[in-house]
Amino acid sequence: HVQLVESGGGSVQPGWSLRLSCAVSGVSYSQYYMAWFRQAPGKEREAVATIYTGGGMTWSADSAKGRFTMSVDCAKNTLYLRMNNLKPEDTAMYYCAADPDCPTGDLYRYWGQGTQVTVS
Q1: Helices (H) and strands (E) in the chain — how many of each?
Q2: Cross-strand bridge partners of residue 98
Q3: String of DSSP letters for 28-61
Q4: Considering only CA atoms, which of 9, 53, 19, 10 is closest in space to residue 34?
Q5: Burial zone of 82 (CB within 10 Å; 0-12 exposed, 13-18 middle, 19+ buried)
Q6: What's CA 19's distance to the chain center, in Å?
Q7: What is the CB-side half-sphere exposure of residue 54 using CA atoms within 13 A?
Q8: Helix (H/G/I), strand (E/B), else coil: 82
Q9: pLDDT in tens, the chain (120 residues)
């Protein structure tokens, strides 16, 4: 049974930092596609950063480059998203996702319940 549980969201001021965590269970970290997505009110869900643990390949959205860093701690079964220099436009519900097979777009098999980030 795969379970993803996000935490670490909150309300912060512009320029502040947050680190989101996603505790993962039931997943073999050796070869998994994992990602952080976000969805703001009235907007479509968008990918923020992705990683393939089998080869370490990563991708990040233009809006995240230089500010957000995604990492995986296999020993703790936890996925992280470090967000620096937060902006009001980063306000959204943030979700982690995982899939053993290469997903198309946001068609990841497993999702967490989300954690809210508000920047104002």
Answers
A1: 0, 11
A2: 34, 110
A3: -GGG-EEEEEEE-TTS--EEEEEEETTTTEEEE-
A4: 53
A5: middle
A6: 10
A7: 10
A8: strand
A9: 899 999 999 999 999 999 999 999 987 767 889 999 999 999 999 999 999 988 778 888 998 999 999 999 888 889 999 999 999 999 999 999 999 998 988 999 999 999 999 999
Q: Under DSSP, is residue 8 helix (H, G, I), strand (E, B) or coil?
A: coil
Specify the pLDDT at position 27.
Answer: 77
| Pairwise CA distance, residues 72 & 106, whole Å | 19
Supply the pLDDT for residue 10: 97
Provide the pLDDT for residue 29: 66
Classify residue 13 as exposed, middle or buried by CB count within 10 Å of its CB (0-12, 13-18, 19+). exposed
- Contact of 33 with 94, CB cutoff 8 Å: no
Q: Which two tokens stand for residue 66?
A: 């230089």
